Amino acid sequence: MKTRKNLEIKIQIDSIAKYRRLAVSYAETAKKKSHFTETQKDIYYSVKDGRLKLRIINGRNGVLIFYRRSSSTGKRVSNYILAETTAPDELDSIMKTLHGIKVTVDKKREIFIADNVRIHLDSVKGLGKYLEFEVIFRSIKTARSVLKGLIEHFKLDESAFIKGSYSDLLIKKGQ
After folding, report:
1. Helix, strand, coil proportions of the chain in percent (round to 5)?
2. Residue-level pLDDT at 135
3. How many Å is the maximal CA-CA distance in the chain?
4. Contact assessment for residue 90 and residue 132, using Cβ atoms and an 8 Å cutoff
5. Cα(81)–Cα(122) distance, integer angstroms
6. Helix (H, G, I), strand (E, B) or coil at 117
7. Residues in a beta bridge with 114
8. What is the pTM of this model?
């Protein structure tokens, strides 16, 4: 079982198009890059420790994601484990029976990958539009430096970073 780490931020935005242009220009110099769009349904289950969600991608495949992360600051380190599945509906039935559903998040996600950076442009049902960065790392010092460059490139106001996840925001909103 391989635990992975990323340093991430999330911020609400008014225009996907504006940030898409910035994402394209950021990714231009990357050695490893890709760009694609997915519909994602994240089903969060009620668990005592950490967070557990099943992400169903484009209605076909899925990834079970367990993670722990502090929500005390806008810049957060996540420790996570992924398990892919080609039977997400069956896995959801099992997880629902074992844990119950906490909340479901539906979104359209445009993803830019630039080396070890994932830039997400999200349209989240019931919440609006968001920009999210995930810097996958081995060295937190390097990740902080990369994140600082992203924040500068996108000209973001750090005081507007969101501390919680989309699931937290939907629960707070009462959905």
Report:
1. 30, 45, 25
2. 98
3. 46
4. no
5. 22
6. strand
7. 33, 117
8. 0.94
Q: What is the token pair recorded at 38?
A: 């997915």
pLDDT above 90: residue 69: no
Neighbours of 162 (CB within 10 A): 17
Set out the domains of the chain in order of their start, with CATH numbers.
4-173 (2.40.320.10)
CB atoms near residue 87 (< 10 Å): 11
96 burial via Cβ count (<10 Å: 0-12, 13-18, 19+): middle
Q: How many CB atoms lie within 10 A of CB 150?
A: 20
Residue among 117, 118, 146, 100 nearest 38 (CA)? 118
Q: How many CB atoms lie within 10 A of CB 60?
A: 9
Residues 6+ apart with CB under 8 A from 10: 74, 130, 131, 132, 161, 162, 165
- Alpha carbon of 28 to those of 34, 98, 125: distances in Å? 10, 45, 30
The answer to whether the beta carbons of residues 75 and 161 sit under 8 Å apart is yes
CB 59 within 8 A of CB 39: yes
Report how far residue 143's alpha carbon sits from residue 134's, in angstroms, rounded to the nearest whole number.
9
Structure confidence by residue, pLDDT tens digits, 79-117: 999 999 999 999 999 999 999 999 999 999 999 999 999
